[in-house]
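Run folding on both entries below.
>entry_1
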Amino acid sequence: MTKETEADLSGTTPRRRPRPDIVEIGGRKLQPSTLMMGHGYDPMLSEGSLKPPIFLTSTFVFESAAAGKRHFEGVTGKRPGGAEGLVYSRFNGPDQEILEHRLGVWEEAEDALSFSSGMAAIATMLLALVKPGDTIVHSAPLYAATETLIGKILGRFGVQWLDFPAGASPAEISAVLGRAKDAGRVPLIYLESPANPTNALVDIEAVVAARDAIFGVGPDRPPIVIDNTFLGPLWQKPLRHGAELVLYSLTKYAGGHSDLVAGGVVGAKTVLDPIRAMRNTIGTITDPHSAWMLLRSLETLELRMSRAGENAAKVCAFLRDHPKVERVGYLGFLEEGSRQADIFRRHCTGAGSTFSLYLKGGETESFAFLDALKIAKLAVSLGGTETLASHPAGMTHLSVPDARKAALGITDNLVRISIGVEDADDLVADFDQALKAV
């Protein structure tokens, strides 16, 4: 048994803070990029190992029978506050707890949970908060699997949904929320901003204002949950604008190397507690190895996202005026004075590195372009070190009905591109030669 495990199981050392973390020096608050190097971990509790070991174990030894009972009281919810120590890897583990500790740092969240995938995070959250007969309100479009989960899977249990466009006005948002309230219980308001794959922004502040005006400000109001995968946590921090929970596919920027699958939720502890209980029941926690790899990746998150964002600005500047390009759905090109530009100014600190490229033509031209790429890889996903390109209408959103795809602007001439950390001029050369094949 390692010293880390002994300390955690003793019940005398807080399980999530094995030592007082240094969060400021000389009155200066340390930044997340600094805290990622050691926050939540004491090398002296693990034989002096600079980096946390990978704890590949299914279960943990209790110090005593009384300690085991105390830990299970927390895990099962019989006693508030969660487990005081390590119990079983379906519930918690050292790598997962250090990861969750650091995830919360980026947005100054009260608490955080990690999951085996982004969809596992979404599904666990919905199972914890939604009851049969509820009406979910969400922005549109959503990631196709999320739409399927809400519309088809939960629909089997009498769950209804109402949506509004990502760029909806305050009046449009209020109208939909009002209809939802009239229909019955609203368990949550689910947002995705920027939307996948159109890059349209949701006005989080307008949703908060409409929610509070219609449902009040009491504890029973529906929480606002937002998928912040495209911009967070560097370029958008929804908790600051009134959201209760922020959801991530950690596979993307947080993992950032296209070598793992994971998800995370950060935010208000009161909303996360039932989700933690559901995760304990169905076992959707991150595995130790993936958690350890995420700890590695978080150390360079700011560097990678900054470089990718700079590259995207250069690539989009080239694509914008190309004769074979209809338009570029890039947040750095929003029309001054437009509603989208106003949302961007209030909510975002960067334009991101994932954008929508609309070619002149349709599926034939899109496929020709994709097949001609040499540096950029033809693959789904985003936020990795490499540049990726895909065709949403024929790939990630293939299961979405054609009429809904048309209504949401997911057209055959749309190519989604995620820019990586390669040399920007090399990427421009690659896109230039690929467009010549169209």
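>entry_2
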Amino acid sequence: MSRPFILGLTGSIGMGKSTVAAMFEAAGIPVFDADAEVRRLQGPGGTLVPPIEAAFPGSTGPDGVLREKLGALVFGDRDALARLEGIVHPAVGAARQAFLIEHAGEPLVVFDIPLLYEKGGADALDAVAVVSASAEAQRARVLARPGMTPEKFAHILSLQVPDAEKRARADYVIDTGTSMERTEAAVVALVAGLTGTRHAR
């Protein structure tokens, strides 16, 4: 039975992954955004709100999960984080399976997974594309974000697999340190290369 070729899309903070994901969508490729799915599941009426409230009392409200409150409860606490991931990950996995079923006839789909190499899961993909730019461009982009500090940025980087290692492990590298036009051309070329033949398993 044939199924879509599954391309994992990942990249460190500030590398332009969301922009590249949008370019895949613009090229007509279905994209499963793990972060967006988590936000939906944790939003108003989301199915994860009751179990998260049960595990972390006071971490939710009428608008769903209160991200800052929940973040404060799990920050730096490995056991609490593992408990939260035990609630969230199965739900995201189920949503991803439903997405695959919905797009079973497509030649290519993209799984947008921010912490792919950090959390594992690359084995379930057919190939991985890493979005990358220079360390200088990354730093400038991240420090321009509201509320970001050099200390916060350093801490986030310390939790992520280094960009050089991601590039080395990737099947494809999409450079966002160039013009938007050149990045988009690279995405379009990759789509053409991957959809030129149907992949069957």
